[in-house]
Every structure is written in C-alpha cells, then in structure tokens.
C-alpha cells in the first residue's frame, strides 16, 4: 500500500501576475485581475479605490470567465 505525501511534490512555478492593489495605506486588500469582476474594482475589505499592481504568484486560470473571440 502506498501513501500520498505532499512533501514529495515539486513546488508550482511562480510568475508575475497582474493584480489590483488597495490604495489605503493600512489595508492589505488585493485581487488578481483575471478574478476581478469590474474594470476598476473597489477593495473588498475597506471599499477604497484599487490600482494596478504586479505580484509573483502561482498562475491560476479563471474558468468562470467566458472567452471572447
């Protein structure tokens, strides 16, 4: 019988991902752009304006968005 061990998995590669970052200095809110619902969202934590940003993250695909061709 074999057992599954998470520690034997290779770490997922990280890449620069476009994000929305909260502008409020003491707020840690952010969101991946491909998961945000609107063009210029407000912070889900404090309601402040969000600006463009980039983070080094594991890339995730948002399958709920419809592809426009």
UniProtKB/TrEMBL annotation:
User: Pfam families recorded for this chain?
Assistant: YdjO
InterPro entries reported for this sequence = YdjO
This chain's protein is named Cold-inducible protein YdjO
**Gene source species:** Bacillus amyloliquefaciens (Bacillus velezensis)
């Amino acid at each position: 019988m074999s057992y599954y061990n998470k520690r034997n998995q290779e770490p997922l590669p990280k890449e620069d991902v476009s994000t929305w970052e909260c502008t409020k200095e003491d707020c840690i809110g952010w969101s991946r752009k491909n998961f945000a619902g609107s063009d210029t969202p407000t912070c889900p934590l404090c309601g402040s304006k969000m600006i463009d940003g980039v983070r080094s993250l594991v890339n995730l695909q948002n399958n709920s968005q419809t592809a426009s061709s």
